[in-house]
Amino acid sequence: MASEPFAAFVDVDGYRVRYRTTGTGRPVVLLHGIGRSLEDWEPLRAALPARRLIALDLAGFGRSQPLPDLRLGALAEHVAKTLDRLGATAPAHVVGNSLGGAVAMRLAVHDPARVASLALADSAGFGREVTWLLRALDLPVLWRLLLRPDEYGARTAERSLFHDPAFATPDRIALARELARRPGAARTTRQVARALGSLSGVRADRRGNLLAAVEALDIPTLVVWGDRDRILPAAHLTHAATALPRARTHLFARTGHLPQIERAAEFAALLDEFWAD
């Protein structure tokens, strides 16, 4: 999948970060999930042509260089520094999917003045349950087999993200395989997965502390989920409503882990309404 002409790189503390930006106005920051890249936001970008969108490859993913520390706090701080380098210092609407949702929440806690609102799509951090593929990354040796960058693995992983298999296009599968073959990609994915949880699932102590801190901030928050998510189950939306009782919630029907792709137009309409309020 070829890069669009507006994809670029910026140096942040000696580490290269890939980003893509379009539009004008208040910045909207887009943060993808584990093992993914900013390409996951292309359908939503097309559905929000009037917005100033800044999509980042998180450190160690896509084509951005990894950091020595890939825990949530370090990833969030690196996002903040990247936005400073891009001149996006005004309070931003931050949209995060999966891992990106947890990074978005950590960013809000780390620097609340930077975050105008949070929109969390099938976000990590709301429940212990997670697909066995990510839990198994905690096991020695097995993680290398699970993260092999072969055609079968890329196709299987891509199809697991969608309810409608038609969204697992040849281009998306090819990109997934390409990114998985980058030096250190598998080790980075495992490192981040282990920072979030273990074989038994997402760690409750870290999850609870983060959610309590976010709720205390009283930042306008929207949480959406796909009802057929096979990575983080839709029951997590109920957990989100309990942990963040002032947040708006929405459940997309017949949708998997990436509603920004499967339900781009509907998600864009929800965001526009949310931001208008």
What does this structure look like?
- The chain has helices at 42-47, 72-85, 99-110, 132-135, 142-146, 151-159, 170-180, 185-196, 204-217, 235-243, 259-262, 264-276, and strands at 7-12, 15-22, 27-31, 52-56, 92-97, 115-121, 197-198, 201-202, 221-226, 248-252.
- It is α/β, with parallel strands linked by helices.
- An eight-stranded mixed sheet has the order 1-2-4-3-5-6-9-10, with helices on both faces. Strands 7-8 form a two-stranded antiparallel ribbon.
- Helix 1 (42-47) links the parallel strand 3 (27-31) and strand 4.
- Helix 3 packs across helix 9 (204-217).
- It starts with 6 loop residues before the first strand and ends with a helix.
- InterPro entries: AB_hydrolase_1 (IPR000073), AB_hydrolase_fold (IPR029058), Epox_hydrolase-like (IPR000639).
- It holds the Pfam family Abhydrolase_1.
- Keywords: Hydrolase.
- GO terms for molecular function: hydrolase activity.
Order of helices and strands: EEEHEHEHEHHHHHEEHEHEHH
Uncertain ranges? 1-5, 134-146, 197-201
What average pLDDT do the residues reach?
A: 86
What's the shape?
Answer: globular
Total beta strands? 10
Radius of gyration: 17 Å
Major sheet summary line: 8 strands, mixed
- Helical segment tally? 12
Strand content: 15-25%
Summarize the amount of helix as a percent range: 40-55%
**What separation lies between the terminal Cα atoms?**
37 Å
* Strands side by side in the biggest sheet: 1-2-4-3-5-6-9-10
Structural class: alpha/beta
Could you provide a short overview of the structure?
The protein has helices at residues 42-47, 72-85, 99-110, 132-135, 142-146, 151-159, 170-180, 185-196, 204-217, 235-243, 259-262, 264-276, and strands at residues 7-12, 15-22, 27-31, 52-56, 92-97, 115-121, 197-198, 201-202, 221-226, 248-252.
